[in-house]
Amino acid sequence: MDVESRASSSPPPDAAVDWRGRPCEPRRHGGMRAAVFVLGIQAFEIMAIAAVGNNLITYVFGEMHFPLSQAANVVTNFVGTIFLLSLLGGFLSDSYLGCFWTMLIFGFVELSGFILLSVQAHLPQLKPPPCNMAATDGGCEQARGIKASIFFAALYLVALGSGCLKPNMIAHGADQFAAAAAADNAKRLSTYFNSAYFSFCAGELVALTALVWVQTHSGMDVGFGISAAAMAAGLVSLVSGAAFYRNKPPQGSIFTPIARVFVAAYTKRKQICPSSSSDPVNAGVCEPAHLAGGSFRHASKFRFLDKACIRAAEQGPNTKPESPWRLCTAAEVRQAKTLLAVAPIFACTIVFNTVLAQLQTFSVQQGSAMDTALGGAGSSFRIPPASLQAIPYAMLLALVPAYELLLVPLMRRATGARSGITPLQRIGVGLCTVPLSMVAAATVERRRRDLSLSAGGAPPRAMSVLWIVPQFLVFGVSEMFTAVGLIEFFYKQARGAGMQSFLTALTYCSYAFGFYLSSVLVSLVNRVTASRGGGGHGGWLGDNDLDKDRLDLFYWMLAVLSVINFFCYLLCARWYNSGGADDGCDASASAQVAAEGDGNGKEII
Questions:
Q1: Cα(569)–Cα(267) distance, rounded to whole angstroms?
Q2: What is the pLDDT of residues 247-269, one digit of tens each?
Q3: What pLDDT, on a 0 to 100 scale, did the predictor assign at position 309?
Q4: What is the three-class DSSP state of 580?
Q5: For residue range 264-293, what is the model confidence (pLDDT) as tens digits?
Q6: What CA–CA distance (Å, rounded) separates 105 from 160?
Q7: Cβ neighbours of 588 (radius 10 Å)
Q8: What secondary structure letter does DSSP report for 310?
Q9: CA 499, chain centre distance (Å)
């Protein structure tokens, strides 16, 4: 099959079918009526997983009796695995199963994990004997053998299910608007992504207030059981909308065409890009205009891949066509270049998610060492430390609609972009503000530690837990900009390439690397500072007692890393936007893409 027939035989990327496999009807399928069911499963799923993940360190440390630093790594590895497995979910959806069936299958996998966690937390014979880890200085019996095996099996069933669900919920919801008129598409997509984040915040808020309160007062077994019930409700929401969905058919392996580009470019690496006069067969193949269909921004970048389009010889009726592994289409080269171009933007969000990991681990323990009573020490009402993470989400439930209804129209008039503020600008705002979260955390931790150590033999003085609210609030605002901007950015790059779920999964992959980086930094900092006598005998984070650790110094280190990361992002975003006006595209093509709000047009600058 030659290159033209391969290009023409590919299914159109915007083709959609209903649940019976018939072509969709615009009036019956898609739109917000269908997307609301996807928003339903997103809210219930995040409610279930957040109630487990955000308070997991309390269960691992207090009931499974892992040392504090090891418990923190268990949590970050678990959350990191969820987000890394999103790549698998995106691949299976785009290549073989489609979004709906991927969500349905792995939704039941996640449900089974929640049920197993609830059973283990309920049965005493599946847990170590009760023991106070703080009082015994880590001398409690740690979960091992069959008990640890059941725990990790349940935990990673949840990780597998949640990871494969996440990118498909976002992509499937956005696919419901693919039939919109080009002039409205960018606006409706931006509104949908803000609605999806609102749904996310609502689920997080319920999880971090009601469900964490249940875990604290009724036991983790009841809390895990409610998470299972929430997941079941999400699956009901997903199935209820089946008759209204626009389903994007899978298009075969998404990795094979990209791999072919690299193989073909390597095998022809010694070829010289011909001029039109020397080789009419390959005239213009290596020129940027050859890849500039749709105003392709990256046509002048990664020029070595252009050689994948060079023909070995002129094709005639008796000539054997070149193998697809030696001759690629311009569309396949554009796809490969797009993946390479977004990689630096993706890398710059990893440190951001390392900061998030601290708020779900050490900041929870930081709150546990403070006065959690509201209304003074004599008050009977106490805030579960894990519920502090609900504060930014409560604020964001008001900020997200205000952003959509007030800020976006103002920015739309100021910038001319239909989405108001462009995705790259939105990411930059979040990366710029996130260091302030770690500055606030370090300042409060230093003050808390000094007050506790200055008590001497007297009862230690405890700061109110409300002092750590600012670090959560600042990060919440940063996440509203960075997380939504990154999802919108990747989704727009995937349109027309049949990779919506996979590229959306890169957003969650950033979370994975951020949490894994957190685990590496914790271990590395402990090793380095222990050898230099920092903190306690085990380094800055080596003890189970925060008064002996130097968590404040660890926070300062992350603040510095976040500032460096922001300046790296500015360079990467500038490089990404370079060449947009100099790719040799004709004016009509550029105007058309800009009107459609394409990821390679004005909307991304």
A1: 34
A2: 888 877 777 888 888 998 888 88
A3: 82
A4: coil
A5: 888 888 877 665 445 555 555 555 445 555
A6: 11
A7: 9
A8: -
A9: 16
Specify whether the CB–CB gap between 261 and 305 falls below 8 A: yes
Give me 364's structure tokens. Answer: 């929870």
Q: Which of 221, 170, 172, 197 is nearest to 29 (CA)?
A: 172
What is the spatial distance between Cα 558 and Cα 389, in angstroms, rounded to a whole number? 19
CA distance 430 to 434: 6
Domains of the chain as residue ranges with CATH: 15-252 (1.20.1250.20), 254-276+297-313+322-328 (no CATH), 340-578 (1.20.1250.20)
DSSP 244: G
pTM greater than 0.90: no
Residue 586 has pLDDT above 50, yes or no: no
Q: How far is the C-alpha of 89 from the C-alpha of 98, rounded, in Å?
A: 10
Please write down the HEC assignment for all residues of 347-359: HCCHHHHHHHHHH
Tallying the residues shown for the chain, one arrives at 605
**Residues 427, 334 contacting (CB under 8 angstroms):** no
Residue pair 362/76 in contact by the 8 Å Cβ criterion: no
pLDDT number for residue 583:
34
The residue type found at 508 is: Y
DSSP character for 373?
B
What type of residue sits at position 530?
A
**Orientation of helix 68-84 relative to helix 350-360, angle to 10°:** 130
How does the average pLDDT of the chain come out, rounded?
78
Tokens linked to 173: 């919801």
Burial label, 316 (beta-carbon count in 10 A; 0-12, 13-18, 19+): exposed
Judge contact between 302 and 323, C-beta under 8 A.
Answer: no
The tokens describing 95, both together, are 């290549």
